[in-house]
Design goal:
With 901 residues, the chain is mainly alpha-helical. 67% of the residues lie in helices and 4% in strands. Among the domains are: 175 residues, P-loop containing nucleotide triphosphate hydrolases (Rossmann fold); 59 residues; 105 residues, no CATH class; 68 residues; 52 residues, Arc Repressor Mutant, subunit A (Orthogonal Bundle). The chain contains 49 helices and 7 strands. It comes from Microbacterium invictum.
């Protein structure tokens, strides 16, 4: 009643499910508002045409990782063998059926999406999840992932829950229906239809107002009071039984039941999953008669058939809340014993924890065992919650502190940084040993980075160095981990770090870099780069790049944060890009999407630094698509450099960049400042570019300053600062000789040409153009632009046009619009023809383009789906759109269209 708009949205969803245009809805509202009734009414019309999988969240399973997912997917077991092997393995490990490396939740999510898509191919399939606020954290994350990825499948998902922060976070980005109260007309009709006697419409309208149109409150009023009583209550302005008073109504009704029926209801309320066998077993232990449920069913509190189900969650709350603490503990103890007997150790741990009053070493150990089992299945959030509860029940203070640190580590590994900080032991660390204190510092430092909190971000490197010192020789692997994270923190914050210096990172790394494994090699290279002169460091950097290139498997993904340091230090952007792409591919395979996101973001920075804004933008869009899949809407920090390349006014970019710098993101703010300067070069604002670049090259930071030197030479020469240009040229030459990089040599020759007499400039320009690899098309185009301008000045207009035409084509291809405009102006001045807006507009969206590229390289639909974390149906949908937009009809034509990309 009164839900026409909401019902239509549900009907539209169900219609889409039948027609390969599935989707999801998240229905939220207060208790009694009608969420379940709305869904049931919509399903009533479609039960014959859909396969409906329906579950209800129950508190007893909230600590069982992926427990709700197992219940929801159980009926689809016949289709499991039809999904890709890696996804099938992830689902089986998550369900506790197989042993293996704990799967990442996104990989479990992709597996469940594939399972639903396969089921949908057999028959349109709808999943309905009610009371989602009682689901385990991992199932919630998977359902959110699936809800955001359903597209071209015969699959739908409807999730209903009360207002709950964890549910809203997990389902962020999912289309939402917020159910409010009924309007006056519908609410009055509901109340008058159920009440005994005739109720005046104006009185009914008053009750709709005071109940805020809550359907349950109105229905219970009609059940509890007659029309005459409601009228008298309204006239006397007596309190109306709504909200918390509803539970009082239920409590009063329950008091009329026999004692053994009330006891049985408490068992059912505490058990919460609705398992009749568990309720019966616990009731028997407590001496409750077998027929005790009859009276409770008689007053419509509960139904007992295949499952025990309370008519409304508020009834269950009233039953549980009315009991004494001692009675509740007694019931939970009986339920724990039954769960142990049946081998349900997770459920037993939940009830055992609820059965104790105060610390209990045995129950704490039981919770730790459950936490370890959850972690083995990939349920790190469940592990965090279980360990936190174990810490609360641990009599030994040192053990409690240790378990709190472990809980925080689990939360951090799941991406819940704020929860991690909350779970860390408070107060004095004297209960922790040095290794545990080191682990605590690592959690604090990494949480500060994840949360983008300026103070935590800037202090991160110092905390990580302190952690490495505490770990020392006792925990060498932890020491190395802390030092690598400290290096990462240094590159993120640069000069904004407080409490430590990058030189200290280098010294600690050198001391801890014994051995021949890839981590040791990378650490020795980083320390040499930090502490030694470049000529001394170059061989160590080269060995590090070679070691990284030889690394396979997940080990490379764990080192992805550090590949740019040795690669770009050697002016080898190709190696950096190749290693980052490999790391991203491995991350996709294992479902480590947060690591993939970081790789894509870094790849965008690599492409920007070699003048390919289009590729950088594509990587950022892929990154944004992954964050949408994970339900994360925003970047940690805005990429001001990309804004500068996209033509955002400099004054706006500078304001954003200043805010990023003040927040502690020194590395990103350096990128932004450099991008502004480079685009100032494109517009001829040489003096401004020179002033902006001066602090970047005079105060360099690791590898991040390398590509600024050629820009600095150009700005210095054109602004009349030849001495500064000569100084920078000598630096570039030294780097080129020590690194052996063709790119460094080409950039040196381009810079040399700007400082050369006319007789030598041409040779340097042409040699530089021929030396750039194809991946540095933008750098080559900038060299052609400078060469073309030089040719025009020496009155070789025909030769100038040839260079400028090619530069214009290349700038348009890489999306360097500001440089393209400059090349267009120069070409016109040289007598050429270059109409405004000559760039070809790409008709494909970023996701369509990614699908097309993978298909052009020979990937199957299933392989593309796995790489992009979508279903094969969605891949097929995108390919049909690609073929239509490009006016082609085969994958062979697609391969020709994207040859060389």
């Amino acid at each position: 009643m009164g839900r026409a708009e909401e019902s239509e949205r549900l009907r539209t969803l169900l219609s889409g499910v039948r027609n390969e245009a599935g989707g999801a809805l998240f229905i939220t509202g207060e208790p009694g508002i009608g969420k379940t009734s709305l869904v049931d009414a919509a399903l009533h019309e479609h039960t014959q045409s859909l396969r409906v999988l329906s579950i209800q969240g129950v508190e007893v399973e909230a600590g069982i990782a992926f427990g709700a997912l197992q219940r929801l997917g159980g009926p689809l077991v016949a289709f499991v063998d039809d999904i890709p092997e890696t996804q099938r393995a992830a689902l089986r490990i998550a369900a506790g059926l197989d042993e293996g490396p704990p799967p990442q939740p996104p990989l479990v999510g992709l597996g469940f999406l594939s399972l639903l898509a396969r089921a949908g191919a057999d028959r349109p399939t709808l999943c309905v999840v009610d009371d989602a606020h009682h689901l385990d954290a991992e199932s919630l994350l998977v359902l959110g992932f699936v809800a955001r990825r359903i597209s071209a499948e015969r699959v739908g998902l409807v999730v209903a829950a009360r207002a709950d922060e964890s549910v809203e976070g997990a389902l962020a980005g999912v289309p939402r229906i917020e159910l409010g109260g009924l309007d006056t007309e519908a609410g009055s009709a509901l109340l008058r239809r159920g009440v005994e006697g005739e109720l005046d419409p104006t009185v009914a309208a008053d009750y709709v107002h005071v109940t805020a149109g809550n359907p349950l409150a109105l229905r219970e009023l009609a059940t509890e009071l007659s029309a005459a009583q409601l009228t008298a209550t309204a006239i006397a302005h007596s309190p109306v039984p709504i909200g918390g008073r509803l539970e009082m109504i239920y409590t009063e009704r329950m008091s009329e039941l026999p004692a053994h029926s009330r006891d049985w209801l408490l068992v059912a309320a505490a058990e919460s999953s609705g398992d009749p066998a568990a309720v019966e077993a616990a009731a028997a232990v407590l001496g409750i008669p077998a027929d005790a449920s009859d009276a409770a069913e008689g007053i419509d509190f509960v139904s007992v058939r295949d499952t025990v189900r309370f008519r409304h969650p508020l009834i269950r709350s009233a039953v549980y809340g009315a009991a004494t603490d001692a009675a509740r503990r007694r019931v939970h103890r009986a339920l724990a014993e039954d769960a142990r007997d049946r081998g349900q150790l997770d459920v037993a741990a939940h009830h055992a924890a609820a059965a104790v009053h105060g610390p209990d070493a045995e129950v704490a150990a039981e919770l730790v065992a459950a936490a370890d089992a959850a972690g083995a299945r990939g349920g790190m959030l469940s592990r965090a919650h279980l360990l936190a509860r174990a810490a609360e029940l641990s009599p030994d203070a040192a053990e409690a502190s240790e378990r709190s640190v472990a809980a925080a580590e689990a939360a951090l590994s799941a991406g819940a940084a704020r929860l991690a900080l909350h779970l860390l032991p408070k107060g004095d660390d004297h209960e922790l040993d040095d290794v545990a204190r080191a682990r605590k510092l690592i959690v604090e430092a990494m949480s500060g980075m994840f949360l983008s909190e300026p103070e935590g971000l800037r202090a991160g490197m110092a905390k990580l160095l302190a952690a490495a010192d505490l770990a020392g020789e006792t925990a060498p692997q932890l020491r190395r981990q802390a030092l690598l994270l400290a290096l990462n923190s240094a590159t993120v914050t640069e000069g904004r770090a407080v409490g430590a210096t990058v030189r200290e990172v280098g010294e600690r790394m050198r001391a801890a870099s014994g051995g021949d494994d890839v981590t040791a090699v990378v650490m020795r290279a980083a320390s040499a780069f930090i502490l030694d002169d470049y000529v001394t460091a170059a061989p160590a950097l080269r060995r590090a790049v070679e070691s990284l290139q030889e690394e396979t498997g997940a080990g490379l993904t764990s080192l992805a944060f550090f590949v740019t340091v040795p690669c770009v230090a050697l002016w080898d952007w190709d190696a950096a890009a190749e290693l980052l792409r490999r790391s991203a591919d491995i991350g996709r395979t294992i479902g480590a999407l947060r690591e993939v996101d970081a790789c894509l973001w870094t790849l965008s920075a690599v492409e920007l630094s070699r003048v390919n804004p289009q590729a950088a933008s594509d990587y950022l869009e892929q990154s944004a698509e992954l964050r949408r899949a994970l339900g994360v809407g925003d970047e940690q920090a805005v990429n001001a450099a990309m804004l500068a390349w996209q033509g955002t006014p400099s004054v706006v970019v500078e304001q954003i960049n200043h805010a990023i710098h003040e927040a502690g993101w020194g590395g990103i703010s350096r990128m932004g400042a450099a991008a502004i300067a480079i685009n100032e070069l494109a517009t001829g604002a040489y003096e401004s570019a020179f002033e902006r670049l001066t602090p970047l090259v005079r105060h360099p930071f690791l590898q991040s300053s390398h590509h600024h030197y050629p820009e600095y030479v150009e700005a210095a020469v054109r602004s009349g600062n030849r001495a500064a240009a000569q100084w920078a040229l000598e630096r570039i030459e030294a780097y080129a000789e020590a690194s052996g990089s063709a790119v460094a040599r080409a950039l040196f020759l381009r810079s040399l040409a700007l400082l050369s007499d006319d007789a030598d400039a041409e040779h340097s320009f042409t040699e530089a153009i021929g030396m750039f690899p194809p991946s540095h098309r933008g750098d080559a185009a900038r060299t052609r632009l400078l060469y073309g301008e030089w040719l025009r000045r020496v009155r070789r207009r025909s030769d100038a046009r040839a260079q400028l035409e090619q530069a214009l084509r290349d700038f348009e291809a890489v999306g360097a619009t500001t440089f393209a405009e400059r090349a267009r102006r120069e070409l016109l001045a040289a007598g050429g023809s270059a109409p405004t807006g000559s760039a070809r507009v790409d008709p494909l969206s970023s996701q369509e383009r990614q699908v097309a590229l993978l298909a052009a390289r020979g990937a199957t639909n299933a392989e593309i789906a796995a790489a992009m974390f979508i279903s094969p149906n969605t891949v097929d949908y995108h390919l049909r759109k690609v073929f239509r937009k490009l006016e082609i009809s085969s994958r062979r034509q697609l391969a020709d269209r994207f040859a060389g990309e």
